[in-house]
Structure formats: structure tokens, C-alpha cells
Amino acid sequence: MRLSSSAVRLIIPAASLAVLLAAVFYMQPRAMSYTGLNLLFNLAVPIALATIAQMLIMSVNDLDLSMGAFVSFCACVAATFLQTSPAIGVLIFLGAIAVYAGIGVVIHLRQLPSIVVTLGMSFVWGGLAVLLLPSPGGAAPGWVRWLMTVKPPLVPMAIVASVIIAAVTHYVVMRSSFGVLIRGVGGNNRSVERAGWSVVGIRAAAYALAGLFAVLAGIALVGLTTAADANIALRYTLLSIAGVILGGGEFVGGRVSPIGAVIGALTLTLAGSFLSFMRISPDWQIGAQGAILIVVLALRLFLNRVEKREKNR
Amino acid sequence: MTIKRMLLASIAIACVTAPVSASAETADKKIALSNNYAGNSWRQAMLTSWDKITKDAVSQGIVAAADPFTTAENQATEQAAQIQNLILQGYDAIVINAASPTALNGAVKEACDAGIVVVSFDGIVTEPCAWRIAVDFKAMGESQIEYLAEKMPDGGNLLEIRGLAGVSVDDEIHAGIQAGVEKHPQFKIAGSVNGDWAQDVAQRAVAGILPSLPEIKAVVTQGGDGYGAAQAFAAADRPIPTIVMGNREDELRWWKEQKDANGYETMSVSIAPGVSTLAFWVAQQILDGQDVKKELVVPFLRIDQDNLEANLETTEAGGVANVEYSLEDAQKVIDAAM
């Protein structure tokens, strides 16, 4: 029996997650419990949502460098407007999603490099976030707080949420015709156009969907932290990109995997805990985190090569 | 025979348990330090102080462990994850210097719910279940005017050097100075500049405003700016006023030189990086079952004419005057808040 290449892609992230999890359980048996798992993974939920958002952008061959700033902005909106006057809060979010769609249109029509446009936008989002919350504060809306601290029976919230995110996005991106179109634009933009589809529209929709997931990431983050500040999620830009790659995605070609992306986000979060349990000095931690990434990617490259050799045979 | 043996055994047990009675409550407790940043001399001194004091405490059997953890990127989400890991590692108390006053509240709440004592200092958290050891910067500003009022009852013109605009510490010290001036109306703030807590910026700013100022009797500062102000006055060939210092080594050295040369008098005030050790003892006291108020105020470190030499000697070149706190100091702080 031979595995399909997409299954091979999923095996590596899943295996690395399992290995890390086993190592964490070995070092810290306390983690092997309901609360333990929740504490390990609850901060991965907003990262997973941001990773999905980044994955959608990457599936049309673009890169979003404003992810961290945008999630911070959304967190600030969630901690202020969404809490005091929900209607205005929802309107702001809708506006932000529209802006994301607009960015997609501009990038496509003017043939601009997405890196430059989103880098510029990161300052816009950062500035808006500071305007909203000049000093750290705000409060999470009650229902968001409830949602993020709810204790479902048997399986902790963090795991349930990750599974739901993975399942929903897998359906949207891998099973629906809309998902096929998005990945088609990343894979071969011209043939999608020849088939009579509006590539502008598809790109705008992909960006809007990414905006929606980033908004959800901001809301989820505030639900966990209970309050926001303007710099709360700046790490998410690089974390989300690393999560997509770790989960078997590629920078170009529309080759992405939603389940892999969620696993990638969980793996990254777990890697941090792992290093902390190992008592690695903070001076070495960034380096060690990088080393984990490199090992996983090297493993994938190796498997890719094996796969290719078998095909050529 | 057996009774004799039992008696001997119970005596042995009594001997083993007796000596630790003073700290028996916390001998098996573990305390962690969650620190968000280690990239400047103040933070390095803070970590060194923590290391020094807690190592002694562990070897004396007062606590079982006191491990410092620093996050690599000074980001709130990273520190929140770190705190959740510390919960999993089974610490009984977590001492926090926080990256954000609000963004860690969720993780802090998780810790409280798990029955962990959370003590924040310097960078404090607003979550109500945590303890806060805050610096009364306003009192720090006011103390400068109090000192000057005693030294020069006739009053006179003041030059105020402020810190970095838009930072809450600057506002608070400034408010304290203003409150002091209102209480002692013989003083008048003739001019005000931003020195950004840095010698070079302060020197430039003071040099710029000096020509437009009348005779200045004293300079009130926020720390890190006194030496630059002195240089600016010297360069403009004006009589050097009483400049309040901020415990930096270069400021203290300059003060010492002036004191030896012409009996120059002033005072110096700032917070000591060793405040981390105060937080450690407060956490230990809470674990010991003491009743401690949630809001504590850290005393600032003041250097006067007579203890200048002693402080200068213990301050590293380019560093900040430091003091490590003892259990007794922590008890004093706790009692003061009652």
C-alpha cells in the first residue's frame, strides 16, 4: 500500500507533535490531565486561527506580514467596542474584513508584491490599535470569556476548538469548490482565469476569509487574556508563517493543508513549553526553537526527495 | 527493649523536626520568577539579586526552590504561555515582572484558580487575585521637594527634568513634584525639559534651556539625568545648583568629587533592582500563611550625604545603586500596608 503525497505531508507534522507531546508528558506528568492539556494548548487556539488566516493568504501565493499587527488590532477592538457596544464592534470587524478584501484586490490589480503592501498595512493596524488603546486595558466581553474558559466534558476546550477549526477549514479549503478555486489561483492562476473565473474575485474572497479568521484569532486571544494591549500579538506574524510551513504548506503553488496548519500551530506552542520544561536558558531558547523548526523542515525535505525518487523510478 | 527503641526513635524524630520550626510552613514550597526582559543593566542587576538572595534561602531550607525564568522576546503572549507552563510545573508561588499590566490577566487567573500565589512587582498586573508591589513614584517626586524645602527654607527657582513623554512613570513623578511645589509655594518651577532618563539627552536639553532661565537654586530630576544636567551647568559657566540625583553610578561619582572638592550637598533617589528579592520574601510570607494586603508599596532607595561613600563603593561602574531586601524588610513593608 502506498500513501498519497498529501498523507505523507500530514504525517511529519503529526509525528513531530506526537513526539513533542510524549516528551512533555515524560518530563511533566502533571500535563497529562484535563487541566494540564488545557494549560498547554489554550494559547495555541488564537495562534491556530491566525495560522489558518496566513494559510489562506499563502494559498494564493501571497504572504501577510501584517498578521500580528492585525490580530493585535482585532484584540483591541474586542476588548473595547465589542464589549461596550457590540453592534459597533461587529461593524468595525466587518469593515476590517472589507479592507482585507480590498488589499487583495489592490495587490492583484496593481501586481504589487504582497509583502510590501502588508508590511505597510502592519503600521496602519498598529497605529489604529494604539489609537484604540493608548495604554493597556479594556475587558473581554462576557460571552468571549465564557467561550474560551468553558469546560466541556472529557476533552478540554483547547483540543475541541483545535479539532473544530481544523475540520471546518479542511472542509472549506479542501472539499468545497471555493477552496479548489483558491488553491487553483495559487497553483495556476492563468488556467483558472481561462476557465472563466474572476481571479480578482477569488483573491479578494481569500483575503476576506483570511481577515475573518484573523478577527476570530483576536477575539479568542482577548477571551484568554481578559484584556488587550496594542502590541499583544506581534509574535503572530512569524508564528503563523512558521505554523503553515511546519504543517506541510508551501510558500507557492497553492499547496496548503488546513489540518497541518492547526497541527503546526500546536507544535510551535508545545515547542515553547518543551524548552521551558527542559530549563533551557532564555538566551538559547530562540535558537532552540529555530533548531526544532529546521529539524522538522529537513525531515520533510528528505521525505519529499524520497517521494520524488520513487515517482521517477 | 522495644519501648526503649520507640522512645529513642521519637527523640530522634523530634530532633530532626525541631530546628526548622521557624520556616517549616514553606520548606517544601517552590517559587518561580517569571521575567519578561533581561536586556538592560537594571534587569541584569535584578536577576543577579534574585539569584543571590534565593540561593541563600534555598540552602537554608526556607523554600525548596526559587527558579528564575525569562522570556526570550519580551512579548505578553509568550509570557502568558510561560506562566501556564509554570502552573504545570507545580510551583506554589509565581513572582512576576510583567510585559503588560493587562495581557497576562488570563494566565494569572488560571494560576490563582490552581491555588498558586501570584506576586507582581515593577511591571505589575491588574488581575485582582494577584498581589502587587508597586513603586510610589509620586512620593518619590514629592520627597525631592521635601528635601529641598528643608535644605533651603527661602525657596527659589527650580528646573525640572522630566523623563520620557507619554510614559506613566514620568507623569507620576511629575505629579509628585507638582504636589510638593504646591505644598511649599516658596519654590517655583522656572523651566521644564525632557531628559528621557538619559545623561546625553538631559545634557542637551538643559544646555538648550539654560540661557533663558533666571538663577536656578535646584534641579529636580527623575533619575539617569543628573550628571548630564551638571555637565550642562558647568559648560554654561553658571553656578551649579543642588541637583537631585538618581542613584546611577556616574551621578554618585560626580557628587562624590564635588563633595570632596567643595562640600557639595544633595540627595539621590530611585528604585533598587533588588526589588525582585522583596517580591520573593513577600511571596514566601504569603505561602507561610501571613495575612498580606494585595497592594504593597516598595520603599525607594535614597542616598544622602552621609551614606554616599558606602553606596558608591557597592555600585558597579555604569550600574545602578542596589539593595537586596531581607525577610525583615519584607515584613516591614507588609506591616506598613496593614
UniProtKB/TrEMBL annotation, chain A:
<protein>
    <submittedName>
        <fullName>ABC transporter permease</fullName>
    </submittedName>
</protein>
<dbReference type="InterPro" id="IPR001851">
    <property type="entry name" value="ABC_transp_permease"/>
</dbReference>
<feature type="transmembrane region" description="Helical">
    <location>
        <begin position="284"/>
        <end position="303"/>
    </location>
</feature>
<keyword id="KW-0472">Membrane</keyword>
<keyword id="KW-0812">Transmembrane</keyword>
<feature type="transmembrane region" description="Helical">
    <location>
        <begin position="204"/>
        <end position="227"/>
    </location>
</feature>
<keyword id="KW-0997">Cell inner membrane</keyword>
<feature type="transmembrane region" description="Helical">
    <location>
        <begin position="7"/>
        <end position="27"/>
    </location>
</feature>
<dbReference type="GO" id="GO:0005886">
    <property type="term" value="C:plasma membrane"/>
</dbReference>
<feature type="transmembrane region" description="Helical">
    <location>
        <begin position="114"/>
        <end position="134"/>
    </location>
</feature>
<dbReference type="Pfam" id="PF02653">
    <property type="entry name" value="BPD_transp_2"/>
</dbReference>
<keyword id="KW-1133">Transmembrane helix</keyword>
<keyword id="KW-0813">Transport</keyword>
<feature type="transmembrane region" description="Helical">
    <location>
        <begin position="88"/>
        <end position="107"/>
    </location>
</feature>
<feature type="transmembrane region" description="Helical">
    <location>
        <begin position="259"/>
        <end position="278"/>
    </location>
</feature>
<keyword id="KW-1003">Cell membrane</keyword>
<dbReference type="GO" id="GO:0022857">
    <property type="term" value="F:transmembrane transporter activity"/>
</dbReference>
<feature type="transmembrane region" description="Helical">
    <location>
        <begin position="65"/>
        <end position="82"/>
    </location>
</feature>
<feature type="transmembrane region" description="Helical">
    <location>
        <begin position="233"/>
        <end position="252"/>
    </location>
</feature>
<feature type="transmembrane region" description="Helical">
    <location>
        <begin position="154"/>
        <end position="173"/>
    </location>
</feature>
<feature type="transmembrane region" description="Helical">
    <location>
        <begin position="39"/>
        <end position="58"/>
    </location>
</feature>
From TrEMBL, chain B:
<dbReference type="InterPro" id="IPR025997">
    <property type="entry name" value="SBP_2_dom"/>
</dbReference>
<dbReference type="GO" id="GO:0030246">
    <property type="term" value="F:carbohydrate binding"/>
</dbReference>
<protein>
    <submittedName>
        <fullName>ABC transporter substrate-binding protein</fullName>
    </submittedName>
</protein>
<comment type="similarity">
    <text>Belongs to the bacterial solute-binding protein 2 family.</text>
</comment>
<feature type="domain" description="Periplasmic binding protein">
    <location>
        <begin position="31"/>
        <end position="290"/>
    </location>
</feature>
<feature type="signal peptide">
    <location>
        <begin position="1"/>
        <end position="24"/>
    </location>
</feature>
<dbReference type="GO" id="GO:0030313">
    <property type="term" value="C:cell envelope"/>
</dbReference>
<dbReference type="Pfam" id="PF13407">
    <property type="entry name" value="Peripla_BP_4"/>
</dbReference>
<keyword id="KW-0732">Signal</keyword>
<dbReference type="InterPro" id="IPR028082">
    <property type="entry name" value="Peripla_BP_I"/>
</dbReference>
